[in-house]
Structure formats: structure tokens, C-alpha cells
Amino acid sequence: MCIESSKETRICNVPQEGAFMADKKKEKPKHLGRGLQSLLSPIMPDAPGTEHESASSDITPIFPPDNELRDSLREISLNSISPNPYQARTVWNEQDLAELTESIKANGIIQPIVVRPRGVGYQLIAGERRFRAAKLASLTKIPALVRQASDEQLHEWALVENIHRVNLNPIERAKAYREYLSCFSLTQTEAAERLGEGRSVVANYLRLLDLPHEIKQMLAEGQLSMGHARAILALPTDELRRKLANRAMAGRLSVREVERLVRKYVAGTEQAKVTVRLKPAHITDLENKLSGELGTKVSIETRKNGQRGRIVIEFYSLDEFDGITERLGLPVAEGV
User: Fold this and answer.
1) N or C: which end of the chain has fewer CB within 10 A?
2) In-domain check, residue 299
3) Looking at 268, 288, 314, which one is the last position of a domain?
4) Do 50 and 159 sit in the same domain of this protein?
């Protein structure tokens, strides 16, 4: 049932007392991330065209009910709300916001945002997408749950909400994990338990922060996937990681193709460790000189009799290939 509160917004199905309480029999470790949804989900039924996501019923909410705040669902002015200073998300998808804006224009606000009192106004706790879309829809008021919250709670809830957003890019998520661990002095295992995730998930995201800046930027912009990054991390140096990342992006290589290249490099490195002592010093010196002249890795492989062999010149992009041919004094081949 919907209550028409104004021409601009509609508040539907105000929850009954205790609507935010999880089953006490199932209360074990508090999974904070999904608990944030357990605050919001019971308020509104699923409706087509909204951003609502249901949560599991056996997750304990991180916003416990409070006698003083049970009737805190109200309409408040958008101009009285300030953003959450701990918001981890930095990139907002314009198309998603546009779609949500159209949904709000057609259906009103189906799910309220969550705020806390701040001075003479309010500060956002959860629901920034709805808050932004409501402004784009030219609303003046928005339904909101008003909750008391400390700065520490606000910080944790903001981090947890963003960690569990589907459209958070991998680097934003990795930074949110790192900040969560740092701010609350948690180990990876402790953080994973509180978030209801596997420790390996947290560990894999944190490892992304070891990548060079250029590759992190590719991840943030969606030019490389999490799978690409995990494969590239197996390489021993940042220089090799950059070269493979550029090659993967330029050639639109799949994750499996990148993994094959990494395995090939690792296998070649292990073989080189075995044979390097057998390579004559003058051959190694010549390799180094050629590599310096051409600006890329050059390998000289000789047969056992020393009379035959091959020279391997590596390149990792078409631009690098053109540069090598120029250094060799050759014309750039068309269509390569």
C-alpha cells in the first residue's frame, strides 16, 4: 500500500515494529555488508525498474532497531542533506543514473535513503544513487530513514555498503577493503568474516593495489578485467607487467590468452635458470648490447655445435614493433 505524501514522492509500506530484526535463532557472526541491505530491504517490496536488491533473511542487520527512532521514516528536503564524507565510490555510471532517474519520475522513490541528523540538516548514510537520481529528477523532497550514528559507524557502514555494490570497479573495491582493514585494525580473515566473504576474495582484491599505476587505471576504466590483473600479477617485475597489460589491451586478449603468455614466460624463465650457466659470456654480452640498441629483449640461441642458431627479438605492441624496425633501418611494413 502506498501513501501519497506529495506530488513528488511516494512512501510505501512503512515497516511495522521489529521489521528490521533478524531471526535471533540464526544470529551468529554479524555479516555487516549484507546486513546493510537487511535494513533497507524490508521497507519496500520488489518493484520493476528500481535499484532494490533483496537480502538473505538470516543476516543480522547492522542498524539495530531503536525505540526512539522507530517512527523515523519521513520526507526531508534534498537541500538539507549533505553527502557522506566517507563515500568510497568515485565513479558513477551516467547511464545507470539516467535509468534510475526515469524510474523515479515514473514510480517515485520506492526505497528510502538513510540519513543521520547533522547540525540543522542531515548527512547521508546510505542511498547516494537514489539521492543523486532524485536531484536529477528535479524532486525537492525524498523519503528517508533518520538514524543516530557516530562518525565511526558512518565510516564503517559507508565502506561496507560500497564494498558490496555490484558496479564498484575493482580498484575502488580494493581500496575500500584496504581502508576497512586499516581503519578498524582488522586482519584479512577478520574482515572477511565480518563481511561474510571468503578470505581469498579479500586477499585477491588487495593484491591489485600492488600493480603499477597504469594497470590500476586500466582496471578502473574497465579496459582490463580482474582475471587479467590476477594473471599479470604472476610476473616478477612491474616492467613486465606493464608490457603484458599493454599487449592485452591493444590486442584485446582474453584472460586465458594472458594466462598462457604468463605461463610461457615463467616456464622460459625456469629453463633459462638451468641453461644460463652454459651460455658463453660473449653471447650474453652480445644479447645485452642488442637489447640496449633495440630497446627490447633480445635472445641468442645456439645449437650444440655453435655453428647454427637463431636471434629472437621480442615486441609487445605494434608501436614497439615499428620502433624496432626503425632502429634496424627497415621500412615499416603495411598491415602488420
Assistant:
1) N
2) yes
3) 268
4) yes
| Domain carrying residue 302 | 280-327
In sequence order, which residues have a C-beta less than 8 Å from that of residue 152 and are 6 or more positions away? none
Q: Which residues contact 195 (CB under 8 A, 6 or more apart)?
A: 31, 32, 33, 160, 163, 164, 180, 202
pTM over 0.90: no
The cell for 238 is: 612491474
> Both 244 and 140 in a single domain?
no
Residues 153 and 264 in one domain: no
Mean local confidence (pLDDT), 319-334: 77
pLDDT at 246: 92
Q: Following DSSP, what letter does each residue of 5-67 receive, concatenated?
A: -SSS-EEE-PPPTTTTPPPGGG--S--HHHHHHHHHGGGS---TTS------TTSPPSS---G
C-alpha cell at 290: 642488442
End-to-end distance of the chain based on CA atoms, in angstroms?
Answer: 65
pLDDT per residue as tens digits for the range 196-242: 888 899 999 999 999 999 999 999 999 999 999 999 999 989 999 99
Catalytic residues: 128
Domain annotation covers residue 194: no
Rounded Cα gap, residues 265 and 272, in angstroms = 10
C-alpha to C-alpha distance for 299 and 280, rounded to whole angstroms: 13
Query: Does residue 46 lie within any of the structural domains?
Result: yes
Please give the helix or strand (H or E) that residue 288 lies within, else none: helix 281-294
Residues 157 and 87 in one domain: yes
Instruction: Tell me the β-bridge partners of 81.
Output: 122
Please tell me which of 51-65, 144-158, 159-173, 268-282 the model is most confident about, judged by mean pLDDT: 144-158
Q: How many residues does the chain have?
A: 336
Q: Do 99 and 57 share a structural domain?
A: yes
Task: Give the residue-averaged pLDDT of 162-185.
Answer: 82
Strands 113-118 and 121-126: antiparallel
Number of compact structural domains in the chain: 3
